[in-house]
Amino acid sequence: QVQLVESGGGQVQPGGNLTLTCAASGTLFTDMKWYRQAPGKQRELVASLAADGTTTVADSVKGRCTISIYRDIPVMTLYLRMNTLKPEDTAVYYCQGYSVLQDRDYWGQGTQVTVSS
After folding, report:
1. Mean pLDDT of the chain, nearest integer
2. Residue 71 — pLDDT band, cuts 50, 70, 90?
3. What gap in Å lies between CA 84 and CA 98, rounded to an integer?
4. What does the DSSP assignment read for 84-110?
């Protein structure tokens, strides 16, 4: 069974830090990404990590977010470290993984991040 399970969300004050975790299992994932969706807005790409280790982050979080992965096959754990959080970072954060074996994307259920004082 293919699963992506996010955790680590919560409420944090502006300027605070959070690390989101995505436990991915059930297939071999290559490219993995973090997305977020704020209320009333479209889902946007936050950060990505390719199979060759190349990472990208959105301009809106550049310098404040780091994506990384720990591979302990058959489980891979994807992280998103977020620093100096702002109220506009408030959103549901989703983990996405591409399975080369199934040739499709899989999504987690999301974890809520709320930045407010």
Report:
1. 96
2. confident
3. 29
4. S--GGG-EEEEEEEEETTTTEEEE---
